[in-house]
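Support request, please re-run this one:
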Amino acid sequence: MNDPTARKSAAEPEGAGLAPEQQSAGQLDPLAEAQRQAADFKDKLLRTLAEMENLRKRTEREVIDTRSYAIASFARDVLAVADNMHRALDAIGDELRQASDSNVKALVEGVDLTERELMKILERNGVRKFSPQGEKFDPNMHQAMYEVPNSDVPPGTVAQVIQSGYMLGERVLRPALVAIAKAAPRASANDNSQPDAAD
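Re-run finished. Output below.
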């Protein structure tokens, strides 16, 4: 029972006499495992930092957009008031503007000043008016209402602005209502020919 080899094998850890390649097959090297885990943690940390930076930039952009475009709904409602004031001023004829009655003149001047002030306030808040007369039709900025035959401008050009459009920053707040030029119909050769005289 006092076998020296039995006592030696019990005292030595398993695989102690084996080569390093043989040891790794049975168990992992603790240093290599710790380095692998450290590399994994570093990779996860770098990915998390990159995600946090992207989130911060995206949030900053959203805050800027929200500040810039938060008034869009309100501005659209105010545009209806601006349109009505413009229509009222257009409806006032020259004779009424030249009226000798000082009350009528004061009323017209008051409406005119109010419209100008309203447009200044809209511009101060990033809303600007545009009228695309003579420009090429752009479906992103213009809403076509109808086509008109017009040989003076190329087909697809805005021939008439029915209602001005408005931009809020770089976005279209309201498209301009326009009439688009189309090629004028050509008189055919048959239309110009005279009927044959009877024999």
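The helical segments are 4-11, 20-26, 30-69, 72-91, 94-97, 102-124, 189-192. DSSP finds seven helices and six strands in the chain.
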